[in-house]
Prior knowledge:
Distance between the termini: 25 Å
Number of helices: 4
Helix content: 25-40%
Order of helices and strands: EEHEHEHEHEE
Largest sheet: 5 strands, mixed
Strand content: 15-25%
Amino acid sequence: xxxxxxxxxxxxxxxxxxxxxxxxxxxxxxxxxxxxxxxxxxxxxxxxxxxxxxxxxxxxxxxxxxxxxxxxxxxxxxxxxxxxxxxxxxxxxxxxxxxxxxxxxxxxxxxxxxxxxxxxxxxxxxxxxxxxxxxxxxxxxxxxxxxxxxxxxxxxxxxxxxxxxxxxxxxxx
Length: 173
């Protein structure tokens, strides 16, 4: 396994956001047997999932980013880069969600933005890219916004995902 150490880069903060709608895994009773639900819940520790019925992934990442910027007392204009990581962008094949977030956060026009379309390893790769951009000397403050709206893309009949995948967004500075 590759190991990367990049000196002179630190994590200043990390915040997540979840939708208010919280659903028990027992809502799948009837789709899966009670025994299956109990077994999966006990083996994963998942008892409920947050579901974003009318929200986009960017909405959750935006909420996390605004709170993080406020908590760190960072002026949005001081952010040099924004990396958006998701398998569920707002507009697949149309435009980068990072550009939408850039505008909604009111970041400087000079702020670099791009999307990374990865799943489980996405946050780690986003962090690696952010650290590399900072270490190269081009940027000093980067936001990594990572999240997914998994519940809309997973089949409610898929035992491997339906009971454990929820919706969330995060912001890391």
